[in-house]
Design goal:
Layout: E1 5-11, E2 20-27, E3 32-40, E4 47-49, E5 55-60, E6 63-69, E7 75-81, E8 90-93, E9 99-104, E10 109-115, E11 121-129, E12 145-150, E13 156-161, E14 166-172, E15 179-186, E16 193-198, E17 204-209, E18 214-221, E19 228-236, E20 247-253, E21 259-265, E22 269-275, E23 282-289, E24 295-300, E25 306-311, E26 316-323, E27 328-331, E28 336-337, E29 341-348
Antiparallel strand pairs: 1-2, 1-29, 2-3, 4-5, 5-6, 6-7, 8-9, 9-10, 10-11, 12-13, 13-14, 14-15, 16-17, 17-18, 18-19, 20-21, 21-22, 22-23, 24-25, 25-26, 26-27, 26-28
GO molecular function: 6-phosphogluconolactonase activity
Protein name: Lactonase family protein
Family: Belongs to the cycloisomerase 2 family.
């Protein structure tokens, strides 16, 4: 019997008919997903699974909702925790699932919470409201924290602030859950760094910038107790023929991290890049349309033969076959209707 997977899609509920979190059955051999049921969560703007795939966490208007992922992929509600602020937009956890980090776009706040032994979310251990003024009055005139992640050695917490074009780096105390400012990476003016991810070997950080529409590659070294980042490369998220109105959106690795995928709103496309594991550098292979509007999240199925796109504005998910020898992908099944989808967490179920 092969591996079994489920997917969980978070949606807004203030418009449309979504209840919040949609559970999908995944066929990794065909590159398709099918709707199973919905779970009620108000305005699930982001969902994330624990590293071991046994828990699912969802943003809600009033905090964080925790679920136990059952062996068949169904969800069992565990509880709710407050972040004492406006609704978050991103969730990440440490490797051991001892702490959670919640990013706040609307109030420019990052919140650190301790996890309970059963995997539910506990009390706040620390928080930080960013300050500063951006350069574009209509878009990023004030702090908007859109992503918070630990470095792979878990010494530092990095937060992207697309409102003031900075990535702030904090010392992270794994015992107390406290954070303390360590450094600031000042990005290009009006670039709007949106999301970041680290390679699993801990050597490289990848950042997607919403307004300049490029990916940035940084080297990382925290061996002497201080965070050292060096910008190695910036590379466009779009092709030579792209929309004049564009906003880089999602950033993902392929399962084996040999590829980096990004998405573009406006251009409504996915870019695929080769990643050199030694140098960390990227080479663009192809940028193609997703047959939907505002691909807010994207990803690859296990096996790296298929791609999915979460299209917020058209309320669809679209699915593609990746043909690496010819550098293109094509849609192989009709779109799946999901109202106002924001993101997708694909989880391997227990054997």
């Amino acid at each position: 019997m092969g591996n079994r997977y489920a997917a969980y899609v978070g949606s807004y509920t203030y418009i449309g008919n979504s209840k919040g979190v949609t559970i999908l059955d995944v066929d990794p051999e065909k590159g398709t997903m099918s709707r199973r049921k919905e779970i009620r969560v108000n305005n699930a703007s982001y969902v994330s699974s624990s590293r071991d795939g046994t828990r699912l966490y969802s943003i809600a208007d009033d905090g964080i909702v925790s679920f136990r992922i059952l062996p068949d992929g169904d969800l069992e509600r565990m509880g709710k925790a407050t972040i004492r602020g406006m609704r978050g937009c991103h969730i990440s956890t440490d490797q051991a699932n001892h702490f959670m980090f919640v990013s706040g776009y609307h109030d420019g706040k990052v919140t650190v919470l301790r996890m309970e032994e059963d995997g539910s979310v506990g009390e706040i251990t620390d928080s930080f409201y960013d300050k500063g003024i951006g350069s574009i009055a209509e878009r990023n005139f004030r702090p908007h924290i859109s992503c918070s992640r630990l470095t792979p050695d878990e010494k530092f917490l990095c937060i992207t602030n697309l409102g003031i074009d900075q990535i702030k780096v904090f010392h992270f105390n794994k015992d107390t859950g406290k954070i303390k400012m360590a450094d600031v990476i000042r990005c290009e003016l009006e670039s709007a760094p949106r999301f970041l991810r680290f390679s699993s070997d801990g050597k490289f950080m990848y950042v997607i910038s919403e307004l300049k529409n490029y990916l940035s590659v940084y080297s990382y070294d925290g061996s002497d107790g201080l965070p050292k980042f060096e910008l190695l490369q910036t590379i466009s998220t779009v092709g030579k023929k792209s929309s004049n109105v564009n906003a880089a959106a999602a950033l993902r690795f392929s399962p084996d991290e040999s590829l980096v995928l990004c998405s573009n709103a406006g251009d409504n496309s996915i870019g695929i890049y080769d990643r050199n594991a030694e140098s960390g550098l990227l080479t663009q292979r192809v940028v193609l349309p997703v047959s939907g509007e505002y691909p807010k999240d994207i990803g690859m199925f296990p096996g790296e033969k298929f791609i999915y796109s979460v299209n917020h504005e058209t309320s669809t998910m679209t699915f593609f076959t990746w043909v690496p020898d010819k550098n293109y992908f094509y849609m192989h099944t009709p779109p799946l209707k999901i109202d106002q989808p924001n993101c997708c967490a694909l989880v391997k179920l227990p054997d």
